[in-house]
Amino acid sequence: MRWKDAEYTGWGRVLKAEGQLARPEKRAGLTALLAEKQVPAIGNCRSYGDACLNSGGKAVDMTRLDRFLGFDETTGVLSVEAGITIGEVARVMAPKGWLPAVMPGTGFATVGGAIANDVHGKNHHGAGTFGQHVAGFTLVNHQGTAYVTPDSDPDLFRATMGGLGQTGVIISADLQLARAKGDIVTVTERRAEDLDAFLALFEASDATYSVGWIDAKAQGDDLGRGILEEAETGAGLIPAPKPSKSVPMDAPSFALSSPVVKLFNAAYYRRVPARGRSVVKPIEEFFFPLDRIHDWNRLYGKRGFHQFQCVVPTGETEALREMLGRISDMGIASPLAVLKRLGAGRAGHMSFPMEGYTLAVDFPNKEGAARLIKQLEDITAEAGGRIYLAKDSLSSRQRVRAMYPEFQAWAAQIAKADPEGDFATDLVRRLGLREAS
């Protein structure tokens, strides 16, 4: 297996790595590679910061190990290689009446990455996290190759779900799919005039899928205004998908200047009539709205961007108001800001969700962004919330450990699975997650 020198980045393009990558096409090649040296695995590098980076070291690129291995039509259990994407699973299985039970905001996330970050989707309030629908997975580490299930080794299972790839390399997984009524979604869109109205809509919603776009530029009486989308799968005539587009170059700095974003947000808010509306969309257009704009991260220019994502408990919604006030006052947020209602479900020690509300906002990597994100993290910590490590590029060791109360249980399992620290990545080193104290 050939190692090739490479420079690669997280999706935010702020943090970069130089190292060597290998891209095996078959399991035999991967097995031979790992027998020679244990190294971390990466997928499509859709983590925004440095969770997928290994500067100065080696990593195995799993994206060519992307095959369907089998499907039980009776139980709905699908066996796949870890490099297959969530979007490909949805594309193939939706016409058969099945979908991944949980889908993140991009279909380009691999199954291995979805496990390593225990991703959540627009149905977390009802379905929990991705890892809660994994029947088992095949894992390679210093202890050998093992098929791990919640029953066979519950501690290792929980350490792997949301475990940032630190227990070993996931080769394949068995996924419990969810029944789908068809391969379209009916989406109801409603305006929320401020944060209180937004939260009330979420609390009253009984939709299977729900997600909110929030206007991070709004101020005063409009603070927290946005659009709630509620959706159900269905059957019927599939609307013609919108054509894919590409961002051919790094955008100039003025493309996401404050006046431009403010105008865009105002127009986007008003695109939904005051009375609301219902529309029918192809599945991928609802679940993965930005995927049809290839390389959309280039809109932030050469310097890239940070995403801040937190969750705060249900009773701490005033923390959301304070955060939105700070964001609007600073004036550097992009149009990409999302609010979702989360339930209590989580599969791993280091899984992000808790019952409450999650806010995700993109910030161009410009002056003031890091300072603002630190303020937002402070508010999150004071509210008893946590930040999402799949999106993080700025947090500190002390902050993260305090936010994840099961950290010590996770660390004990990692020490067993990888005593030499061969699977450590840039994020793990930056946050000192493999250090004793």
From TrEMBL:
GO terms of molecular function: D-arabinono-1,4-lactone oxidase activity; D-threo-aldose 1-dehydrogenase activity; FAD binding
GO cellular component, one term: membrane
Keywords annotated in UniProt: FAD, Flavoprotein, Oxidoreductase
SUPFAM superfamilies, per database record: FAD-binding/transporter-associated domain-like
Domain of life: Bacteria
Ranges where the FAD-binding PCMH-type domain occurs: 13-180
EC number: 1.1.1.122
InterPro entries tied to this protein: ALO_C, FAD-bd_PCMH, FAD-bd_PCMH-like_sf, FAD-bd_PCMH_sub2, FAD_lactone_oxidase-like, Oxid_FAD_bind_N
Name recorded for this polypeptide: L-fuco-beta-pyranose dehydrogenase
